[in-house]
Design goal:
The complex is a heterodimer of chains A (573) and B (301).
Chain A: H1 4-9, H2 13-30, E1 32-39, H3 43-53, H4 56-59, E2 64-67, H5 73-76, E3 89-93, H6 94-102, E4 115-117, E5 119-124, E6 130-134, H7 135-138, E7 148-152, H8 153-165, E8 170-173, E9 178-182, E10 192-195, E11 200-208, H9 215-219, E12 224-239, E13 252-258, E14 261-267, E15 272-279, H10 281-289, H11 292-304, H12 307-322, H13 329-342, E16 378-379, E17 385-394, E18 406-408, E19 414-415, H14 423-443, H15 451-477, H16 485-491, H17 494-511, H18 521-547, H19 549-552, H20 556-563, E20 569-571
Parallel strand pairs in A: 1-2, 1-11, 2-8, 5-13, 11-18
Antiparallel strand pairs in A: 3-7, 4-7, 5-6, 6-20, 9-10, 10-11, 12-15, 12-16, 12-17, 13-14, 14-15, 17-19
Chain B: H1 2-13, H2 15-28, H3 36-60, E1 78-82, H4 88-95, E2 99-104, H5 107-119, E3 127-131, H6 134-137, E4 144-150, H7 159-168, E5 170-181, H8 185-198, H9 215-224, E6 255-263, E7 268-271, E8 283-289, H10 294-300
Parallel strand pairs in B: 1-2, 1-4, 2-3, 4-5
Antiparallel strand pairs in B: 5-8, 6-7, 6-8
The chains are: A alpha+beta (573), B alpha/beta (301).
Bound molecules: flavin-adenine dinucleotide.
Membrane topology (chain A): Peripheral membrane protein
EC number (chain A): 1.14.15.45, 1.14.15.46
Protein name (chain A): Ubiquinone biosynthesis monooxygenase COQ6, mitochondrial
Chain lengths: 573, 301
C-alpha cells in the first residue's frame, strides 16, 4: 500500500480525474443504470413501482426498472367470465385500499369482482367460543365499505399493471429471470443484476420484492429465520346458492379454528366464496385427490360438525386415500348424515348440511343461519390448489457490506400464516413506508441507496410487522398444543379470545381509512404506537382476567365482554 | 475491445493512487463508521436548507407560483460548500440542482470527495471540488446565491474573519447556512466528554471547547455586521444583516436558529421546531440572509 506521502506525490489531479471519469463513462456504456431496480412483479413489486411512479415530482429524478420472471401480459390481458373467480384471493384492509387510491390504482380494480367484509365470525372448533366483529363496531366512517375488501390477487395485479404501463419513469421488464447479482468491485458502488436475457442492470437501490425464496435476499446475505408449519393451505373457489331474502348479503367472513388448523370462508360474490383451509399435509393431499363433491361436503362438515366427528371424517378420508380407494360422494354423504343424527342435529338447522336442498330457499331461514357460512354446492373446476405454510422473518430489511444498497419488501422479508389475511397487507404497508422514505430522501438530495436513507424504513416496519406476525403465529400454535394450561384455557375459549383480540387490534389499526402517505415518519409511527398502547391495555385486562379464571368460570361470557375495551359480541352455542 | 485495452493501461498507471483513495473514501463514506453522526445529520441540514428556501420563495412570489414539492429546488443557483469534507452535503446540494462548488483546506478530503462523486454517474455534472481556503475565493469575481458551511465554525481560529469571508462571498439577497456547536455545559458534556473521552466516537482532540460559538453570539455578530465596502457590496450596506432583535430573537425573514436534537432511540437527528426551549444548547443550525441590493429593492416599490 502506498504511503501518505506517496499518495500526495502522485496526486497529479488532471490525470487522476481523467482516469476516474473514464471509468465512469466506460461503466455506463456497458451496463444500463437505474435508480431503482425492483425484482418481482407480484402484487408488492408492482405496487412499489406504481407508488414511486405516481409522484410527478419524482418522475424526473428516478429511473425505475421492474423485473419479473413470468409473462405479465397474461396478467394484463386477464379477462375471466363474471362468474369465474381465481383461487388466490386476498383481503385488503381499508388502509391498504386507501394507499392504493393514493397511488391512483384503485380505480383500475374491477369493483364488481370484489366484496366488502362487513362482519367476521371466528370461533373455536373445540369450545365453540365465538368472537364476532362487525364494521359498525369498529366505528368506521363508512361502514358499508366494510372492514376489508376481498379481491382476487390477479384483479389487483392487473390494475397496478394498467397504471404502470402509462408511467414513463418505470420500465417493466418481464419474461426475464434474475440469474445472478454481483456487488461492484468498488465498495459503496452499485450492484449489477444479470438477467437470463443477457441484460445487465446496475442499481442505485436494489429492491427484493421477489417472494419467499427471494434471490435478492440471498445475494445480500440477509439472514432469515423461521419454521415450516407442517401445514398446507388448500385453496379453491366454492359455489353456493345466494343467501335468501331474510339474510344479509354474502359479506360475512367465517373462520373456524380446528386442531388441524383454521378453515376460512371468504365471500367474493353473492354465489361464490374463496376457501383457505389450513390442515396437515397428508390430509390436504388426500382431500385434493377426492372427487370435488367430496371436498364440498367435507368443507360443509368442517364448519358445522363437532370436532370429534371431523377428526373421524378426516381419518376416513386418509384411510381410504392410503388404501387407494378414494371415498365416494355417496359414502361421505352417509357418514356425515350419520354423524349429524348422532349429534342430534336437526335437519332444519343450519348445522345440517348432508340433506340440505341445493337451490336457494325462499322460506324463513333457520334461527342459527348466520352462525355458519352458506352450504357449498360445487367447486369451480381447476380452482383447487394448495400451498405449504411457513413463518419467516428476516433479521433486517436492509443489506450491509457487500449487500449494501439492497432492501426487502413483502414476502421476501416476511411470510406469515394466512389465518388473519395479513400477508399482503403487511407487504403493502412496507411499500407505502419505503416509497415515503425514498420520496423524503430525494427531496433532501440524499442517496436513496444509502443506509441512512433506508434506516427509517426498517425501524418503522420491522416492529410493526413482527407484532402482527407473532400474533398470527401464536394463534396457530395454540392449536398444536395438546396438554397443559393452554388447553384448559382453550376449553373455555378464553385464550383464543385473548389472541384473537390482538388480531382484531391489528385489523382496527389498518381498518381506518386515514391516509398514511404524506405524513411525517415520526407522526405516523407515534399514532400507531398509541394504538398499540390502547390494544395493550385491552390485553392487560385480559391477563388479570386469567388470574381470576377459576372464580368466574360460570359467568365467563359477560366477563370477557367487559374485559375487552371494544367489547366484541361473544356467543356460546 | 479497444476500450477495454485503454482502460487497463490507464488504470495501471494510477492503480495505487486509486486504491488509496478508494480506501479512504470508503472509510469516510462508511455510514456506520467514524463519520456516522455526520451521515445521520445530513438529512436534517438539508431539510433546514430546503424549508428555508421554500419559505423565502413563498414570501417573495405569489403562492401559486411556488412548487414546494419540486425536487430540484436549487436549480440554477450557485452554491458554495465551505469545508466540504468527503462531499456529503455537496452531493446532496448538487442533486437538488445547485451548481455546486465544494472546497476544503485538506487535499485528501478533496480527493475523497472526487472519488466518491465519480461512483455515481447520475450525479449532476455541475458539482466541482477545489482544494482551496475560502479566503482565496475572495480574489475571484464569482459570488454565490447560497453559502453553506457545516460543522466548520467551531474549528476555525478566527471566527470573525471566517464569517466576514462567508458574508462577502454571497450575492445580495444570498443565503448563508451554518451549523455548529454551542459553548454550554451540555455541549461540553456531549461533544467532548462523552463523544471524545468516554465513547471515543470521535477522535480525541477533534473539538476545543473554547472555540464553540453560542447562538446569541452569532445573532449579535450579524446584528452589528454590515456588508464591507467593496464594489460588489456597495448596494447592500444600508442596514446590518439583522436589523432588530426582539427578546434576543431575529425576525423570520432575516435570520433563524434551529436546534438539532439526537434521538438515541431511533439513532437519528431531528430538526427541533422553531423556538423550542433549550434546543440550541448543543448542535444548532443558523440561517441569515444578506440584505437585498438597494437598486433591486427600489425598483420593486
Ligand atoms: C394460501 C394463502 C392465502 C393468503 N391469503 C391472504 C389474504 O387473505 N390476505 C393477504 O393480505 N395475504 C394473503 N396471503 C399472502 C399473499 O399472497 C402474499 O403476501 C403476497 O402474494 C406477497 O406478494 P409479493 O409480491 O411479496 O410476493 P409474490 O407474490 O411471491 O411475488 C414474487 C414475484 O417475484 C418473482 N420472482 C421470484 N424470483 C425471481 C427471479 N429470480 N427473477 C425474476 N422474478 C422473480 C416471481 O415470479 C413472483 O412474481 C396468502 C398467502 C397464501 C399462501
Amino acid at each position: 500500500m502506498l504511503s501518505v506521502h506517496g499518495a500526495s506525490r502522485v496526486l497529479s489531479r488532471p490525470l487522476h480525474n481523467t482516469c476516474l471519469n473514464y471509468i465512469r463513462r466506460f461503466a455506463s456504456t456497458s451496463r444500463e443504470e437505474f435508480d431503482v431496480v425492483i425484482v418481482g412483479g407480484g402484487p408488492v413489486g408492482l405496487a412499489l413501482a406504481t407508488a414511486l411512479g405516481s409522484k410527478p415530482e419524482l418522475n424526473k429524478s428516478l429511473k425505475i426498472a421492474l423485473v419479473e420472471a413470468g409473462d405479465l401480459s397474461k396478467v394484463r390481458d386477464w379477462s375471466p367470465s363474471p362468474a369465474a373467480f381465481s383461487n388466490r384471493v386476498v383481503s385488503l384492509t381499508n388502509a391498504s385500499q386507501t394507499f392504493l387510491q393514493n397511488i391512483d390504482s384503485w380505480d383500475h380494480i374491477e369493483q364488481e369482482r370484489t366484496t366488502p367484509i362487513e362482519e367476521m365470525q371466528v370461533w373455536d372448533g373445540v369450545s365453540d367460543a365465538r368472537i364476532t366483529f362487525s364494521t359498525s363496531e369498529l366505528g368506521l366512517p363508512t361502514p358499508a365499505e366494510g372492514m376489508a375488501r376481498l379481491t382476487e390477487t390477479l384483479n389487483l395485479q392487473r390494475s397496478l399493471l394498467h397504471h404502470l404501463i402509462t408511467t414513463p419513469s418505470v420500465e417493466v421488464i418481464d419474461q426475464s429471470r434474475v440469474q445472478s447479482i454481483s456487488p461492484d468491485e468498488i465498495s459503496g458502488a452499485w450492484p449489477s443484476v444479470m438477467l437470463d436475457t443477457g441484460r445487465v442492470l446496475k442499481a442505485r437501490l436494489l429492491v427484493g420484492a421477489d417472494g419467499p425464496n427471494s434471490p435478492v435476499r440471498a445475494f445480500a446475505k440477509i439472514p432469515s429465520y423461521g419454521w415450516s408449519y407442517d401445514t398446507q393451505a388448500i385453496v379453491c373457489t366454492m359455489e353456493h346458492p345466494p343467501k335468501g331474502p331474510f339474510l344479509g348479503p354474502n359479506t360475512t367472513a367465517y373462520q373456524r379454528f380446528l386442531p388441524t388448523g383454521p378453515i376460512a370462508f371468504l365471500p367474493i360474490s353473492a354465489t361464490a366464496s374463496s376457501l383457505v383451509w389450513s390442515t396437515k399435509p397428508s390430509l390436504a393431499t388426500a382431500l385434493k385427490a377426492c372427487e370435488p363433491p367430496v371436498l364440498s361436503r367435507m368443507i360443509n362438515a368442517a364448519f358445522r360438525l363437532p370436532e370429534v366427528s371431523i377428526r373421524y371424517l378426516n381419518n376416513r378420508i386418509l384411510e381410504a386415500h392410503e388404501a387407494g380407494t378414494p371415498i365416494t360422494d355417496e359414502e361421505i354423504r352417509s357418514e356425515i348424515l350419520w354423524r349429524e343424527q348422532s349429534h342430534s342435529i336437526d335437519t332444519t338447522s343450519a348445522y345440517s348440511s348432508a340433506t340440505v336442498a341445493t337451490s336457494a330457499s325462499s322460506g324463513i331461514p333457520p334461527l342459527d343461519a348466520e352462525m355458519v357460512p352458506p352450504v357449498v354446492t360445487s367447486i369451480q373446476s381447476g380452482s383447487i390448489a394448495s400451498f405449504p405454510l411457513r413463518y419467516n422473518h428476516t433479521e433486517s430489511y436492509v443489506g450491509e457490506g457487500q449487500g449494501s444498497r439492497t432492501v426487502l419488501v413483502g414476502d421476501a422479508a416476511h411470510t406469515v400464516h394466512p389465518l388473519a389475511g395479513q400477508g399482503l397487507n403487511l407487504g403493502l404497508g412496507d411499500v407505502e413506508c419505503l416509497a415515503r422514505c425514498i420520496h423524503q430522501t430525494v427531496l433532501r438530495g440524499g442517496d436513496i441507496g444509502s443506509y441512512t436513507a433506508l434506516l427509517p424504513y426498517t425501524q418503522e416496519r420491522y416492529v410493526e410487522n413482527h407484532k402482527i406476525m407473532s400474533a398470527c403465529d401464536k394463534l396457530h400454535k395454540l392449536y398444536r398444543v395438546s396438554s397443559g394450561p393452554i388447553v384448559q384455557l382453550r376449553s373455555v375459549g378464553l385464550e383464543i379470545l385473548n389472541e384473537l383480540d390482538s388480531i382484531k387490534a391489528a385489523l382496527m389499526m389498518t381498518a381506518g381509512s386515514v391516509s398514511r402517505t404524506d405524513r411525517p415518519l415520526s407522526y405516523s409511527s407515534d399514532t400507531r404506537a398509541a394504538m398499540f398502547g390502547a390494544a395493550a391495555k385491552g390485553f392487560e385486562g385480559m391477563r388479570m382476567a386469567g388470574q381470576v379464571l377459576e372464580v368466574v368460570k360460570g359467568g365467563l361470557v359477560g366477563f370477557v365482554g367487559n374485559a375487552l375495551r371494544n367489547a366484541p359480541t361473544t356467543r356460546q352455542r | 475491445m479497444l476500450q477495454t485495452h485503454l482502460l487497463r493501461s490507464l488504470s495501471t498507471v494510477n492503480a495505487n493512487e486509486i486504491a488509496h483513495f478508494t480506501r479512504l473514501s470508503a472509510e469516510w463514506w462508511n455510514e456506520r463508521g467514524e463519520f456516522s453522526f455526520l451521515h445521520k445529520m445530513n438529512p436534517v441540514r438539508m431539510q433546514f436548507i430546503r424549508e428555508k428556501l421554500v419559505e423565502t420563495t413563498y414570501d417573495e412570489l405569489p403562492e401559486e407560483a411556488v412548487n414546494a414539492k419540486k425536487v430540484r429546488i436549487l436549480e440554477g443557483l450557485d452554491v458554495l460548500d465551505i469545508g466540504c469534507g468527503g462531499g456529503l452535503l455537496s452531493e446532496s446540494l448538487a442533486r437538488l440542482g445547485a451548481k455546486t462548488t465544494g472546497i476544503d483546506a485538506a487535499e485528501s478530503n478533496i480527493a475523497i470527495a472526487q472519488h466518491h462523486a465519480s461512483l455515481d454517474s447520475r450525479l449532476p455534472r455541475n458539482l466541482t471540488y477545489r482544494h482551496t481556503p475560502a479566503e482565496s475565493l475572495l480574489q475571484e469575481p464569482k459570488r454565490y446565491d447560497v453559502v453553506c458551511s457545516m460543522e466548520v465554525l467551531e474549528h476555525v481560529d478566527n471566527p470573525v474573519m471566517f464569517l466576514k469571508t462567508c458574508a462577502e462571498l454571497l450575492k445580495p439577497s444570498g443565503h448563508l447556512f451554518l451549523s455548529t456547536i454551542s459553548r454550554t455545559p451540555l455541549s461540553y458534556f456531549l461533544t467532548i466528554f462523552m463523544a471524545e473521552k468516554v465513547l471515543r466516537k470521535v477522535a480525541d482532540g477533534t473539538h476545543t471547547y473554547s472555540k464553540f460559538i453560542n447562538p446569541s453570539e452569532l445573532l449579535d455578530f450579524f446584528h452589528e455586521f454590515r456588508s464591507p465596502s467593496t464594489p460588489q457590496d456597495a448596494e447592500t450596506q444600508a442596514r446590518p444583516w439583522i436589523s432588530r432583535l426582539y427578546d434576543g430573537q431575529p425576525t423570520r425573514k432575516e435570520a433563524e436558529l434551529r436546534g438539532m436534537i439526537y434521538n438515541p432511540l431511533s439513532a437519528s437527528w431531528i430538526l427541533a421546531p422553531r423556538g423550542a426551549w433549550g434546543a440550541t444548547e448543543c448542535n444548532y443550525l443558523f440561517w441569515v440572509r444578506k440584505p437585498a441590493a438597494l437598486g433591486g429593492e427600489a425598483s420593486e416599490h
